[in-house]
Amino acid sequence: MVQVRPPLVRLQSYVPGRKVPGAVVLASNECPYGLLPGVASRLAEVTGGLSRYPDMGATRLLEALATRHGVTPDRIAVGAGSSEVCGQLLHTVTGPGTEVVFGWRSFEAYPILTTVAGATPVQVPLRDHAQDLRAMAAAVTERTRLVFVCNPNNPTSTAVGEAALRAFADGMPDHVLIVIDEAYREYADPAAVPDALALFGDRPNVVVLRTFSKAYALAGLRVGYCVGAPELIAQVRKTQTPFSVSAPAQEAAVAALQEHEEVTRRAALTLKERDRVTRRLRTLGYDLPDSQSNFVWLPLGGDSTAFTDHCLDNGVILRAFPGEGVRVTIGLPEENSAFLALAEAWRTESTG
Ligand SMILES: *Cc1c(COP(=O)(O)O)cnc(C)c1O
User: Fold this and answer.
1) Of all protein residues, whose CA lies closest to atom 2 belonging to ligand 1?
2) Which residues pair with 321 in a beta bridge?
3) Domains and CATH numbers, the chain
4) CB neighbours of 197 closer than 8 A, spacing ≥ 6?
5) What is the tens place of the pLDDT at every residue in 72-86?
């Protein structure tokens, strides 16, 4: 009989956000404003070339990213979403007998990709909905090869600040790769949340992960990347599934980078809505941490599934983490209002 690796059998599958035709989708942290204007036209131009393999070196995209970040292209590796890049980093430095440390709850791909790579996840409980960097540092052993710091953290929306992150990085042994996942960078307050590239860009044991899936509105095309030391990046590139970033994905990402101002404008709209949603929820009596992302976290504990079902029955899809909380993506103003009306009704029903 075919022998499946036991850790894989025990592993829970990734739970994607639900899709119901006609429903308001606030479940997957996507950008609600659709493709960036220049991206759609560029995509129409490149589909004719799809019978050919894409540029495996993603040359144009690497150059555009290098220009954006003020680094040389040899410091960047791309993948089919930053999820693939997470896996690539794990395959580069971990394997059976090694450990990977991260806060929990955090991005649900971390335990899955760690286990698939053959390593052992070490999940360190959050404290006040935030990553407890001291406890994470204390969980590092000589078996640890990689730590993930999701900043801001998905799904709890909180971020760690510069002083704490610097102390954490300074104290980390050289054999541990620190992966700082900045999928929601564009939504974070730059005064409160450090830019890890600016802070640690020159350290050989730090890699920064970014994605086109969120603020750049390209979740469906699958492009992400990491920035790190050239010696490490050369190895990370070997672990990419060949040609995993399609030509449309590469071209769309290049076009999206040129629309940086539109990305910033849209992010500002989302932040305005995030503040409105947060204020209203608090007025209604909900307890929630300040968000540095394009979503908010409602720590509803045992009510999480019932709350999410109540919203789903009324046409709004959220993401529940049963027993823990509910993640609500900030959508268009009218979508957020639809959600707030349901949150108010829930409150009235459960207290009245
Ligand atoms: C959404 C998300 C990503 C990006 O995933 P892609 O594979 O690039 O779509 C990465 N990290 C975190 C924490 C996320 O929430």
Assistant:
1) 183
2) 325
3) 6-33+261-351 (3.90.1150.10), 38-257 (3.40.640.10)
4) 69, 208, 227
5) 999 999 999 999 999
